[in-house]
Amino acid sequence: MSKFWSPLAASLIPYVPGEQPKDQTYVKLNTNENPYPPSPLVLNAIKDAANGDLRLYPDPTCSALAEKAAAYYGVQPNQVFIGNGSDEILAFAFAAFFSPSNRPILFPDITYSFYKVYAALYGIPYKTVPLDEEFRVPLDAFDEPNGGIVLPNPNAPTARYIETERFRGVLDWNSDSVMILDEAYIDFGGKSGVELVAEFPNLLVVHTLSKSRSLAGLRVGVAIGHPDLIEGLNRVKNSFNSYTIDRLALAGAAAAFDDRAYFEETTRKVIATRERTDAGLKQLGFRVIDSSANFLFAEHPDHPAAGIFQGLKQRGVLVRYFNQPRIDNFIRISIGTDAEMDTFLRTLEDVLRQDGGSAEA
Ligand SMILES: *Cc1c(COP(=O)(O)O)cnc(C)c1O
């Protein structure tokens, strides 16, 4: 607490990102980063952009990148918004489409924890929709008057995917409110809802280059929606900061869309490693939720997750543990390289053996 904080700053409960520890080298499977480096085209484009032009402001409209992204998604450039990571897009979207004086917005009870944080920041009321026992999203429950909807697909941290076609009903019922579809993990096996954008002016689809394009460190996200929604995002952006994407990020992100072959190859590898890891976990007695993402969500019937998390960490393997109701017996494991996942499974076996099935680890 500080007397200098505004009542708003004092009231916030900020989001806590996964650790980026500096104390030792870990097999780092805790923040859903891609284990493969970005495409060589991306690195070259960034190197080329590192020149005297950095004295100049970047293009505030990101037009070259927006055109690339539009071509990739099969939409018009005025249906594309570029953000400094999809987190920034979400922050702008909450301000642009949701309101403190409107009905509560709806999102699942188990989901990306940033949604609550943005709602609190802007004073937007929200109501959570409980997932079923299998962590499926009951889409019928979104059929109630609301001030907006936020759904990640696949969901985080459960990794579960909803068939994109099933959103038609929700979008129809909620034609007076905006639905944000957060597709951070869609490239790992799902079908994007971008194709619904032409039909539903209330749908904003949000993508990130952080996961499937190995660019978490560059900070670029893309939103696709009706031009009116994009204009709403631009109104908010230009009331904060007109230059959210720097010259290096603009160059690197454009090159990422150029190298489709590399993107498809690394994504395919992550999916194959996920399936191997899923089988390995089941062999060790874990219950693993079906994943369409670059991570797995798993629990063991005899070994508490908190102990597994600690045991892995002591042995140099970092996964994510959420000490939250309903999911406090699960660990979330980001998919690394095959070698990293072999180390993970071997270490995990050791942890389970030492634990001996007791509550203590
Ligand atoms: C990782 C993630 C994001 C944020 O991605 P950035 O583009 O790196 O800001 C947004 N939503 C979900 C569900 C995520 O998992």
Key words describing this protein structure:
361 residues; alpha/beta; Aspartate Aminotransferase, domain 1; Aspartate Aminotransferase, domain 2; 2 domains; 5-stranded mixed sheet; 4-stranded antiparallel sheet; globular; binds pyridoxal-5'-phosphate; histidine biosynthesis
Structural summary, described in words:
This protein has 361 residues and is an alpha/beta fold. The protein has 2 domains: 7-37 and 261-354, Aspartate Aminotransferase, domain 1, CATH 3.90.1150; 40-259, Aspartate Aminotransferase, domain 2 (3-Layer(aba) Sandwich). The protein is built from 11 helices and 13 strands. The strands form 4 sheets. A 5-stranded mixed β-sheet has the order 2-8-7-6-5. Strands 9-10-13-12 form a 4-stranded antiparallel β-sheet. The protein has a two-stranded parallel ribbon with strand order 1-11. A hairpin with an 8-residue loop joins strand 12 (320-321) and strand 13. It is globular, with a radius of gyration of 21 Å. Bound molecules: pyridoxal-5'-phosphate. Pyridoxal-5'-phosphate binds next to helix 4. Pfam families: Aminotran_1_2.
Write out the strand line-up for the largest beta sheet, numbering strands in chain order: 2-8-7-6-5
CATH homology superfamily of the largest domain: Type I PLP-dependent aspartate aminotransferase-like (Major domain)
Tell me which ligands are bound.
pyridoxal-5'-phosphate
The Cα radius of gyration reads 21 Å
CATH 2nd-level architecture of the largest domain: 3-Layer(aba) Sandwich
**The level-1 CATH class of the largest domain:** Alpha Beta
CATH topology of the largest domain: Aspartate Aminotransferase, domain 2
**How many helices?**
11
- Overall structural class, as computed from helix and strand content, comes to alpha/beta
Q: Separation of termini? A: 36 Å
Shape: globular
Mean pLDDT: 96
Give the number of DSSP strands: 13
Low-confidence blocks of residues: none
